[in-house]
Amino acid sequence: LPGRAGVDCSSPEGQIKASRELQIMSAVIDNMGLCLFVGPLPPEMEIISQLLTSALGRPVSVDDVLKIGKGILRTELAFNRAAGFPVAADRLPEFFKVEKLSPKCLVFDVSDKDLDQVLFAL
After folding, report:
1. CA Rg, the chain, in Å?
2. What are 36-85's pLDDT values in tens digits?
3. Are 40 and 22 in contact (CB under 8 A)?
4. Which residues make Cβ contacts (< 8 Å) with residue 60, sequence separation at least 6?
5. What CA–CA distance (Å, rounded) separates 56 from 23?
6. Which of 1, 11, 65, 100 could form a disulfide with 105 if both were Cys (CB 3.0 to 4.6 A apart)?
7. Cα separation, 15 vs 18, whole angstroms
8. Cα 4 versus chain centre, distance
């Protein structure tokens, strides 16, 4: 969702934190059966916490919602490993790193080391 996280999409700077946060919030949105275009941004997480509080009949904070998202992603990673998918399967195809995207001639230039921080720091 380019531009929604306030990060310059043409620079690798800030991408790791933004990606991790967006994936956590997207996991919650997706698993609730909501349209991804509802969010995900921090203000929407407050609405999600209110929805879950109403549905469950107990308080669910934004922090609780984000913990749920992290748990979903950890479960997905564990499933992928158990199914035999290697860490390399969590990567974009190589052509994203070499084929330039018009009109700005950008390539995906976030290192694998930095990418590991996205999911493995959950």
Report:
1. 16
2. 776 677 888 999 999 999 999 999 999 999 999 999 999 999 999 999 99
3. yes
4. 49, 52, 53
5. 24
6. 100
7. 5
8. 13
pTM for the predicted model, two decimal places:
0.81
Q: List all residues 6 or more positions away from 67 whose beta carbon is below 8 Å from its beta carbon.
A: none
Residue holding tokens 């933004």?
Answer: 18
> Could you give all domains of the chain from N- to C-terminal order, each with its CATH number?
15-120 (1.10.599.10)
CB 103 within 8 A of CB 5: no
Count of Cβ atoms closer than 10 Å to residue 75 Cβ: 12
Per-residue tokens: 62? 């934004």
Amino acid present at 51: L
- CA nearest to 16, candidates 120, 122, 117: 117
